[in-house]
Amino acid sequence: MRTRLEIERFKSAGWNSVLENSRQSYTLTDQETFNKAMDKLDEAAEAIGEGIIYDPETMHQLIAEIASNIDIDLSMESEAVSDFSTQLLIDIYEINNTGEKEKKIEKALELAKYIEHKIIHGHDIVVNDKQTELSVLLTNFALLATKLSADETLPLIDKTRELGAYKRIGLDNMRALSRTVITGTIDVSAAESVIPLSLQKKLKENGLDPKVVPPLCKDVYEALELTTDEINILKDNEKMARLDVTNLITKTKAEIVQMIEGNYNEAMNLAFKVADENLLKSHEDVKQFLGDIATIMSDGIVDGDWKRTHDSEKFKVYTRVKDLESQLDDFSRQFFNKLQDIKRIKDPKKREQAAIELAAWCEYRVNLTDHFLADGCGKTSALMANFVFMAAGIPPKSMPMMDRRNYFNFDVVPTTNIVINKKEHSAFETKELTTRKVKEWERWLRHYKSSFFPQDYREITCDNAWSVPSVTLGQHLETMGSKSKDEDKYVIPEDANFTNLHHCLRGGYEVAELASAIGAPDVQKLITYPLTRLNLFHTIVYAETELKTDTDEDIVEKVRDVYRTLKGSKVHGTKFNTWLNQNQEEFIRDSRNLAELASQGEAEYAEQYAEVLSTIQQRYKSGEYILGNHIRYISKPIPHDELEKDLVALYGKENLLPNSTNPKEIILKDPEEAIAEVAKRIIADRAYQEMSNRFFEHEVEPLISEAVDECEFERLDIPEPDERVTFMMAGAPACGKGSAVATVATMAEENLEIEWDNTVKVNTDTHRLMISHPHITGERREFSGTLNNHEAGLLTDLAYSRLQKKVNEGVGPHILIDGVNMSKERMDLGMANSGKLLLTVVTVPPEISVERAFSRGQGDGRFVPTSYNLSKHRQVSKNFFKDLQGAMGKNAEIILFDTNVPRGVTPKRIMTADLGSRSITIYDKKLFSEFLAKGNIDVTATCSRDLYMLPQDKLDESYHEKLEEMGFLKIRYEEDKPSIKKGTQFTIFKESGKQKDKRHEPHLGEDEEHGEEHEHRRRGHRGTHHK
């Protein structure tokens, strides 16, 4: 028998493994139970060591008993458990019969890795939520059964634990980084072919994306009922020709996932062995290692050699096949040398930084530029990056989920590979390509590093226009989920919160859990609000779409008055807010009942519940969703009729909440029951949201209307549909849209007799004023725009939805759309039902915009994250022609202004176009080229000199051909005259016959984002009055 001290050492090492590697942290077995289970192992291990237990059946029974100590029921009828038990017994006897100690230790490590693989990562032995605990117990049991000492075996436990961490985190990263989804789905862009129309139709009918090649699995193929021709077309596909389609279509999706994950685990075992034993001795070893990993990863999926044998016509950045071998040699040589350099770095932080840079370089070469492999470059490059951390002795690096989703952002992937056709380049061209290649690599490295090192915003001082921080709601929620392990970890200031999380009915941790469970990219859709908060939203939207308003301050005051009037009113003798709260309680109760019925296959949400439950179960089984990662304990209310019973006897002491102040809930420790509860919460929230929407439309909005009348506010006059005008502003932040609004307002009044207060003004910045407060968003103003953005955007969407309905009914008002992008939905709103769209786009060089935005933020607190600002410059320019194309031939005009002018100087016209008559006039070719070239800017730039790769990227002179392709019939080039009178920019102003020149034209100043307030003359109103 081993000494008590040795047993205690095993206990301690085992418990540390459980704590560090448990995926389902909320279901952890408590330490006392774990230690009791460990106490029972020594005697059984001693019996095996002495040869007393020697038959597989007894071993099977013994393993089942070990599992039962932590409440795991391993079926005695399970063939997989029986095979595992037999193999375990064989391996233990083989170790004990090995004479050489080093060989014994080596075999013991392989045994520990085998147990970890079968229990945690395998698919044969069903353990549900306690894989880690059982794996650690069985590993300790097996090592105790060997005759090795604690000093010899405990390091093996540490190594196994370390490998488990690399596998777990690496698999999470690999799922997201791989361009081929783990289920076998292939993006058409990667497939390099067009899916036949017949197949597209079948995909759409079966709820699949018609733009994506279907998952290569039996269940999908049988559902699609593919013809032989369709299968042959897919087989002939350049990508799929290398896939073993015949093999894959005989397997279900679950079997394919099992095969891919099995390949991954085998490859990880090899990688860990190579790193642990330092087996890379030369660059030839690196090449062999890469080939071995690629071969294992593609086993059963790709036939033939692991190297790519075809050139890509779509992704021209990939190294050509004729140069692939030389580049593979170059990669192997550099990788080996870089890895050796990292190992020599003594400072842990510097070594970590160097390892992340090598990992980024590895993915850049293996996947994004050279693309060495026949298939699975994404998965293999992610595993090679993980290997770098192993070999450097650095803990595995987990990339935040929200960042992994945006990993292959095409704003940062490379487009240059100097190896391609290098002999055809002149010396000057080679120099330019080299510069571009270096800059693209630097851009990729900044992007890659930012994923591993999220900013700690407590340490940021916002004193530089190029470093205004940005944080997403998803990043914040993920950080909340990990704070149990790192209490000093934040991505927003400690005194701040997102306004939607502050006001939602569920807590932030619970919202994070629901978002993770269903994989929701738009967290805002999961937010449920108290009816009092929704009342504020609906009051804002009603007021700004129904009332005459002049300025931002005007609409804020009117909303405040209407809101106070409502709050002070009574409904059926009950105070307004009390009435809202009563209805809220009813909605919550009814929505929970509907969700419960749905879980039983009844009521209107049954189909939705089944879909949500299936999604969560799949995400849980694949490891994409870690149950209880954000809420340590999933709980549910105890039924009312059970509250008086003996709850300890009914549910068990371990299932009762330890908080005695909340005795009406129990903890759900069964994963299936807990997942069902999560699904019910999502359905209950959907039901609540729909009830609330109907309630406000039918019951509250009439009360808001009455409050408006009580306040005696003047309502909008509604024009005839064919006289309705929508003024749309577009351009990146701090480009002068506010001042452009002032210019357009004057022109509208003087040329169309549209009084500006009779125009609906939907502005997200105005919404921020009404829904945000420093006690929520914190003292640091540079974060407020990020923290209130979701709710401000929600109000904008609600307002446009309401306006769309009014326009469709023929009672749409004049509208000002003050936004950033030339949104197709907004443009269509302006042109709908005979309306006229007048689009004004403003532009300045991005570096000017960044400085303006920062200066403005220092003044009024409206800081704009630098990365967001640059991305909007890029989007507006890159999508310019595509956005115009959708309005060609319709009742729309556009003018493009350059507002980079001194104060007091009229902004310069760059281009005007009448899309209805398909005519365009360009006044400044250079400025137009510079505007379009902003589609080339680097959104990760941290200073103005990094905005463009090369000087020629600052101009895009290919626009004439594009304009002809778009269908413009008249393309004219004229010089803009500085004496242009106001009103001549848009054809509609010319045709109105009412042009006047009674005032000096307002100018767009550098820091006048909102412009000056103007005294508007009152005119007679046209149209009819509508409520």
From TrEMBL:
InterPro entries (UniProt xref): Fido-like_dom_sf, P-loop_NTPase, Zeta_toxin_domain
Annotated Zeta toxin domain residues: 719-880
Region (Disordered): 984-1027
Residues spanning the membrane: none
GO MF terms, alphabetically ordered: ATP binding; kinase activity
Basic residues: bias regions: 1016-1027
Pfam family, one: Zeta_toxin
Protein name per UniProt: Coiled-coil protein
Organism encoding this protein: Legionella cincinnatiensis
